[in-house]
Write a structure and sequence with these properties.
This protein is α+β, with helices and mostly antiparallel strands. The protein is built from six helices and six strands, in the order H-H-H-E-E-H-E-H-E-E-H-E.
């Protein structure tokens, strides 16, 4: 039997890896007890439960996104930070909120009414068929050729 295995068997794993009684090994992968999580957080700075910030109290987009919230923009009201559920409930035709799901698939929308209701931009041009674009795509199109709604050049 190896010395390590003997120490592990006789003294327990804690003693074999140099831990004092009452300490925890904070670099294991098993499900941790609440006691171990609290100890490792305080003593080693690992395993800490992140406390979700109150989204409404956050005033910067960077902090909002880092807190797991959604930064919402609209022309008529100031930009603000919302919970993901709040952001998903806002009308997409008025609010542009990040972190709430997959990128909009505006290209697959074939009617102006549905396009506008989805928070996209309906674009018209004489040389190509009318189509639905994301707001960023619509802004990038030349205004001298395309007439796109829901955007400001």
């Amino acid at each position: 039997m190896s010395v390590f295995l003997l120490l592990t068997t006789l003294m327990g794993v804690s003693a074999a890896v140099g831990l004092e009684r009452g300490e925890f090994n904070c670099f294991t992968k098993e499900m941790w007890s609440e006691e171990k999580s609290e100890w490792c957080c305080k003593a080693r700075g690992v395993g800490c439960h992140t406390v979700k910030a109150d989204c409404d109290s956050i005033s910067s987009q960077k902090e909002c996104d880092a807190s797991g919230c959604s930064w919402c923009k609209a022309g008529a009201v100031p930009d603000s930070c919302k919970t993901l559920d709040e952001a998903k409930a806002l009308p997409a035709s008025v609010f542009d909120c990040d972190n709430i799901g997959a990128k909009k698939d505006c290209d697959s929308i074939s009617s102006q009414k549905e396009c506008d209701a989805s928070g996209c931009s309906w674009c018209k041009a004489g040389a190509v068929p009318d189509s639905c674009k994301t707001l960023d795509e619509a802004k990038a199109l030349p205004a001298s050729v395309f007439d796109c709604d829901n955007i400001v050049h």
